UniProtKB/TrEMBL annotation, chain B:
Top-level taxonomic group: Bacteria
InterPro entries, sorted: NusG_2_sf (IPR038690)
Pfam families per the UniProt record, alphabetical: NusG_II (PF07009)
Lineage: Bacteria, Pseudomonadati, Pseudomonadota, Betaproteobacteria, Neisseriales
Organism: Crenobacter luteus
Protein name (record): Uncharacterized protein
């Protein structure tokens, strides 16, 4: 069977596809900014792209957050040429862990818990996932535990800052689309 | 308009801050060594405090191994061993860490504080 040009099928992207693509694009830019910032310890980054994931989560639900996060991780891997390298795998492990954390945090009652909680949980899950993977395959030694408090402190700070920024951007009078 | 930080957010923040502090205390707290035990041919040659900077010369079958103590750490500064493994190990600062110069039958082991393991067998 041969395919000719008249056989092309069009997949019509709907509104939610456009939304996800837009948010993922913003997340990619923020990931680039992130990578450009100097870091005191390898792996400690502000994680600005997570603000976009949070906005996707609160505006459009978990599915959109998963898409935006996944597209950002793979897209950043392609842009940095780090696809399938240890750094990319660490990023993937952290991303998956923090999505799991977000899914859990999103179920908390919205009256008491806002984006800051989600952001903090995601940040801690992120370092947790990364450290677990690093301990398992990259640095099979308990020496890595020595760095855990530093990473936890970084997660505390960046999680709070990103959460507050996301909360600010999620205020009704903001157009973040 | 809702507050940026809701009550539960403060709770989460406080809990995670406490967890971070706990991690720091448990993982960074008591690991630092206080003394170094220098062994020569299986026998204790000297036990020195890490608080006083000094260099200990330990004579062995191949020559003199120099152990340097400075700023709460210890290292093998010089050793006649051919491959220099113990020298390249660099500074030791946590209890239970060891550097062994096998050809010259000399070793240093840090102690005091909380030891990560009871014994090492080679």
């Amino acid at each position: 069977m041969t395919a000719c040009s008249s056989d092309t099928r069009r997949l019509a992207p709907d509104d939610s596809d456009h939304r996800v693509a837009r948010l993922a694009a913003v997340a990619l830019v923020l990931a680039l900014v992130d990578a450009g910032l100097p870091s005191p310890l390898p792996g400690v980054k502000p994680g600005l792209a997570n603000i976009v994931t949070l906005i996707a989560l609160y505006r459009y639900g978990l599915g959109a957050a998963v898409w935006v996060s996944g597209l950002r991780i793979v897209g950043a891997g392609l842009l940095f040429g780090s696809l399938m390298t240890p750094g990319f795998l660490l990023s993937l492990a952290g991303g998956l862990a923090s999505l799991a954390g977000l899914a859990a945090a999103h179920r908390l009652p919205a009256r008491g818990f806002g984006p800051v909680t989600a952001s903090l949980v995601a940040a801690f899950c992120h370092i947790g996932g990364q450290l677990a993977l690093a301990r398992l395959i990259l640095i099979p030694s308990d020496g890595i535990l020595y760095f855990v408090p530093a990473f936890a402190l970084a997660a505390l700070v960046t999680g709070t800052v990103n959460g507050v920024l996301a909360a600010k951007l999620l205020e009704p009078d903001h157009e973040t689309d | 308009m809702r507050a940026l930080l809701r009550p539960g957010d403060w709770l989460t923040l406080a809990l995670l801050a406490a967890a971070t502090a706990l991690l720091a205390v448990s993982l960074w707290g008591d690991g630092h060594a206080r003394t170094v035990r220098i062994k020569q041919h299986g026998r204790l040659f000297a036990e020195a405090s890490l608080l006083h900077d000094r260099v200990v010369a330990v004579p062995g079958p191949l020559g003199v191994t120099e152990v340097e103590i400075a700023a709460g750490r210890a290292r093998i500064r010089r050793d006649p061993s051919p491959r220099q493994y113990c020298v390249r190990q660099g500074w030791l600062d946590r209890a239970g860490q060891v550097a062994i110069c096998l050809p010259n039958a000399t070793s240093i082991e840090l102690s005091g504080g909380e030891r990560a393991y009871d014994s090492l067998q080679f």
